[in-house]
Amino acid sequence: MGVFARIREDIAMARTHDPAAHSKAEVLLGYSGVHAVWAYRVTHKLWLGGYRLPARLLSQFARFLTGVEIHPGASIGRRLFIDHGMGVVIGETAVVGDDVMLYHGVTLGGKSRHGLVPGAQRHPTLHDGVTVGAGAKILGPVTLGAWSTVGANAVVTKDAPARSILLGVPARMQPGTAEEIKAARGLLKSEL
User: Fold this and answer.
1) Nearest one of 164, 160, 166, 123 to 141, comparing CA atoms
2) Which EC number(s) does the record attach to this protein (predicted)?
């Protein structure tokens, strides 16, 4: 997929998920979460090409501009949408699938460096379609199954199967039907 096709896809994703997005131009020029994803794509290519210092420096500059920190070593799929953006952190070994939505203040972080082998998975894996509410923290090498929903301010430290709803501190898993997940996603939007 070409660069311009990806940009169009990202803009369409933002307009689909954010009712406040009134035009393509507004998303193109004013959405920091979208800009952060675009910057990540550049830094990730540099990272994979072995240009790690330039990748990290550009990543930090993008963080300064957008308020979103995405490590260039993270693996991110297509159509990631970061709504509002500010305060989002995605760690080096995080894996994010396609069609994932993150609200502001989300952390996909590690728990500890103790006892970990260099290069080991120490950040979360989010499968396709996961939605993570504002302020939620997903910590350590946990896996969230496809189409799961994490409530605002939840702290997730354990794996969850597909279509789960995770709420609370520490997060408690509730298997969800398609209707329950849609309802939870509606609640997430109203919490903002």
Assistant:
1) 123
2) 2.3.1.30
